[in-house]
Write a structure and sequence with these properties.
Strand 5 and strand 6 form a beta hairpin. The strands form 3 sheets. Strands 3-7-4 form a 3-stranded antiparallel sheet, with no helix packed on it. A two-stranded antiparallel ribbon has the order 1-2. A two-stranded antiparallel sheet has the order 5-6. It contains 11 helices and 7 strands. 45% of the residues lie in helices and 6% in strands. The chain is elongated and about 140 Å long. The N terminus and C terminus are likely disordered. The chain has 381 residues and is mainly alpha-helical. Pfam families: Retrotran_gag_2 (PF14223). It comes from Zizania palustris (Northern wild rice). This is Retrotransposon Copia-like N-terminal domain-containing protein.
Length: 381
């Protein structure tokens, strides 16, 4: 009788010890605080990123069942025996589950911003808070996915570099994956090719006709290489155009000056038809400059001795020098010599002009002077 009594009295204790051992072996443990594992605080716009950081942590700590319902709460009490009217006691398994659930709920709330926290203040368990967040962000996530797809469809390279454009498309694809709708590599490539300008058509053709579908990383490497070749060709083209323009400019300027014409006085050499050619095979073939004032080689008009000599005048005009009344307009344009003002007898040749009303005189090619002439106009420079 005593043995049976001892056995019956020890059975509940043995049963509780066994249950406690099994519960302890299955109870989750949080090795790392949630706020250290989830560094992103939940706002109204980053739910997908926050969720992507949270779920791996919950799987590793065996706490995901508290959110999806796969680890429901145990009963709060246990009966000490199977007899009717048996005394009940607190269930240790429920206490452990409750402690873990409250720690998880506290971690979830601490990882939210104030604007989101207002929507889950009534939650008493982690699952209630999780379900409230799911309902709140489900509709916004679907709207975000539609918005991202529109941005991908309308994304253009324009002035972006190849690297920046690729990162922009790849970033939108990552956002779509975080929202729960990941894209395949060929879909990302289709969006990428659609936004390239016409000059990238050879690149698109080469990528789409490969016998083996390239990876997204291979496409990026080829895109950067193609852009580098394009930039190098453009630089070479601009260099060639600049060299051609400089050569054409030097060709137009040879043999044409703005200074006094040939046949100078004061010992200036005359270069008439019968004059012998200059040294070096002519003015255009020698590297030595020719002065536009005195017609001598070896210096320019800026360094000519007669540049500031007002007494230095050309010889008397010959018979073929036109008079003022028969002055013909030179249709050629010459480089600027640094003059502060320009004059002309044809007002229609100046887009911006001012009539000169001063008292200074202007001396023309035949030596005649003109004072305040109505047919002379000047434009200050």
């Amino acid at each position: 009788m005593s043995a049976a009594s001892d056995l019956s009295s020890s059975s509940p204790a043995t049963t509780d010890s066994t249950m406690a051992a099994n519960t302890n072996s299955q109870s989750p443990s949080i090795a790392l605080p949630l706020h250290q594992a989830v560094t992103i605080r939940l706002t109204k716009t980053n739910y997908s990123l926050w969720r992507a950081q949270l779920l791996p942590f919950l799987r590793s700590t065996k706490l995901l069942g508290h959110l999806d319902g796969s680890s429901p709460a145990s009963s709060k009490t246990l009966a000490t025996s199977t007899d009717a009217g048996a005394v009940t006691m607190a269930n240790p398994a429920y206490e452990r589950w409750y402690d873990a659930d409250q720690q998880l709920l506290s971690g979830l709330l601490s990882s939210m911003t104030e604007e989101v926290l207002r929507d889950v203040t009534d939650a008493t368990t982690a699952k209630e808070a999780w379900d409230a967040l799911q309902r709140k962000f489900a509709s916004s996530t679907r709207a975000r996915m539609v918005q991202i797809r529109v941005e991908l469809a309308t994304c253009k390279k324009r002035d972006l570099s190849a690297t920046d454009y690729f990162n922009k498309v790849r970033g939108l694809a990552n956002d779509l994956a975080n929202a729960g709708a990941p894209l395949r590599d060929d879909e990302i490539m289709a969006y990428l090719f659609a936004g390239l300008p016409a000059e990238y058509d050879p690149f698109v053709t080469s990528m789409t006709t490969l016998p083996i579908t390239p990876t997204i990383d291979d496409v990026f490497a080829h895109l950067v290489a193609f852009e580098a070749r394009q930039l190098r060709h453009q630089a070479e083209l601009q260099l060639n155009l600049g060299a051609s323009a400089n050569f054409a400019g030097r060709g137009r300027g040879s043999g044409r000056g703005r200074g006094r014409g040939p046949g100078r006085g004061h010992g200036a050499p005359s270069r008439g038809r019968g004059a012998p050619p200059s040294r070096g095979g002519g003015r255009g073939n020698t590297p030595r400059p020719t002065c536009q004032i005195c017609e001598k080689e070896g210096h320019t008009a800026l360094r000519c001795w007669y540049r500031m000599d007002e007494s230095y005048q050309e010889e008397a005009p010959s018979a073929n020098v036109a008079s003022t009344s028969s002055y013909k307009i030179d249709a050629n344009w010459y480089p600027d010599t640094g003059a502060t003002d320009h004059i002309t007898s044809d007002l229609d040749r100046l887009a911006i002009r001012e009539r000169y009303n001063g008292g200074d005189q202007v001396q023309v090619g035949n030596g005649a002077g003109s004072s305040n002439s109505e047919n002379l106009a000047g434009r200050p420079m």
